[in-house]
Amino acid sequence: MRRLVVIVPLLAFALLAVVLAVGVKRAPQKNIIESPLIGRPAPEFSLPSLTDPGRTVSSNDLRGRWYLFNVWGTWCPGCRTEHDVLLEIRHSGEVPIIGLNWKDEDEKARQWLAQLGDPYEAVAVDRDGRTAIDWGVYGAPETFLVDPQGTVVYKHIGPLTREVWHEQIRPRLPKQSGAS
Amino acid sequence: MLPELGHFALILALLLAALQAFFGIVGPATGRDRWTAAVVPAVAGQVVMVALAMGCLVAAFIGHDFSVRYVATNSNSALPLFYRIAATWGAHEGSLLLWIFLLAVWTLGVAIGARALPQRFAARVLGVLGVVSFGFLLFTLATSNPFERLMPPAPDGRDLNPLLQDPALALHPPLLYTGYVGFAVAFAFACAAMLEGRLDQYWARWTRPWTTAAWAFLTVGIALGSWWAYYELGWGGYWFWDPVENASFMPWLVGTALIHSLAVTEKRGLFKSWTLLLSILAFSLSLLGTFLVRSGVLVSVHAFAADPARGVFILAFLVLTIGSALSLYAWRAPLLKSQAGFEFGSRESFLLFNNILLVVAAGTVFAGTMAPLISGALGLGTLSVGAPYFNPTFMLSMVPLLALVAVGMHASWKRGRLGAKARALGTALAIAMAIALVLMYGAYDGGLKVLTFVGLTLGVWIIGSSLIDPIDRWRRKLSLTRAIVGMTVAHVGLGVFVIAISAVESYTHERDVAIGKGETVTVGSYEFRFAGDRDIEGPNYDAVRGEVVVTRDGRHITTLHPEKRLYWVQGSVMTEAGIDTYRGTDLFVALGEDLGEGRWSLRIQVRPLIDFIWIGAFIMALGGLVALSDRRYRTAREAAAEPAGGGVIASEEARA
Lengths: 180, 656
Known about the structure:
Chain A has helices at 2-5, 8-33, 77-92, 106-116, 130-134, 162-169, and strands at residues 46-48, 56-58, 67-72, 97-102, 122-126, 142-146, 152-157. Chain A is of the alpha/beta class and 180 residues long. In chain A, the strands form 2 sheets. Chain A has a 5-stranded mixed beta sheet with strand order 5-4-3-6-7.
């Protein structure tokens, strides 16, 4: 009996090592090949709007335009980090940003936008996190670039930086693709 | 030439670490005394080489050697000297070198302290530490060489991440790593004891001061990191359950369990195999933390350069060291015999609960941290958990633990009787409840919140209970050992910490407002008037500095100066919150967005007692340091000569 008990830590660790190994194998996919969604249609969604209660934000309304799909929450430190970059993108007018407010409280989220500035054209509220699961969201913040056909073109995990914006996202946008 | 010298020193250190590991493990195993004796020179050489490498890197930073890639990416000619030194560990490569350097310092300490120990045992401890050093040196040289040259040299550096340009954060990594690495010593002692097959109380006594020291450093390191996050990140929280924070918190929880179970093993010869397992676990979690942070398997705010190749290496190292330690454990642990049992209600039983609850707490943090990885590995899609998961699950094991602390301190060894202490404890509890009520209705804005009441009561009770014994002994003119004083201080620190968290979580007021010059806003019982903003210039940044005058009932309390800094080189904007403390309450103002026409968005927070969260942590660490200065650790040689304590060999732990 005792002989078996003392092996438990070793077995548990072996299991953990396997999980970690899988994690490491997947890590490059996350950062380089990005996401299985790339080249596929963006998942459909239709959610209540944060800023305009009563209205819905839906993927159908976004057809025919380029947009950035940004997953955020007030509880997420990385979202605070990228906020200034999002504001700059908004001011540049090059591509609209649709926010997905993920597992958050409406009041806090509205306060956040009021205090820090609102970079979003619209913010969809994903209270229970279903839509985020559809999009394969790993953790906030994450940002997807979607083309007019509704296809996911690019995904960035973690806070958006100026480098990512200039080197990864902008080159993928057609020249002069206005904010609408 | 210095960078090449440093690189060369690292390679020599790698070879010497290999020798240290070889002689330390093979020497005693084959009974070759001359091999065993060769460990100490190998340690000395390794330490000198590592220190030389560290010195070369620091010199490259001080001397602005932008031909070194690592310096060019993490420093700048405008960076002040203090931060140039701190920039040495500002990113991955240098922080690894710091890790190795601190491990070398600990190893040197062990080599000096272990002269009192049996030679073979000491050699084994140093041998195991050699394995760890070797792994990290190889890792650094193979994947993360800090001395790599840049051709052509950069004209100027890209600057240290502005977030890291802060005194607390300059000190945070060295302290944190000292803690992590210190657990390597406990790990090495455990492995040496298992290799030796000698698992008596001496092993516990020798390990204890090292473990306590490691724990104290880790405590301060985590507290500094949390303090930094509070005033620098600009959104006013002190703990985010971020993977990197959790990575440091899990070893702390297990380390706390370890220092308590070591007490039982030393005093009573019980929990031996459990203590061994905790020693392995504490260090494993430190390594795992390193893995999680460096491999990029988890996304975190602490954006260290993540690299899957590094992940593979650390994982292999993890499997090798922890795998062999756990195999050794599976082989040796069944041989352990324990002396005597203990009654329910004895101090042993309280410490057992302490251990179970701390490990459960570490387990919940672990589950939450690993959730995205595990669900990803199982192909369930990715799942991420945050504070809504961590706060309640963590409380579930912490609240009972805190309730047990107050009583457990007074339980006697072996027997489950509190005796005369029960009355003193009851009185302390009644006083604690009264103080909690006074705090809730008197000092703060009242309203009965159950958790607040429980938290405040427990905090005060723990402090009161810790003081019963010292006061009693002082009145009877009995002497107090450093060990008892240390324990008292640490538990008082815990009480302070608990009170602070309860108050902060219950009585914080926060408001985010848009405000113009001369306007006033009321938060809590304070009025904040925005007196305007002006531009200032720092050594390597421009800033806007706001002025906020705080009054209460018309009386001037303080003037706060929150800043928003634009660092030139990286072009990044940092918030520097304006914080002042008034009667234990933090008044916090951070500048948000410039809304134009002199209007700003401001984040204003009033957080009572928040400073005591960190003060409590520092007191805990101080308690650890006092305890390890106890006489019996300084006279280890005499102790080793004493006959084995207890003497009654009753039953195996399995039967107990």
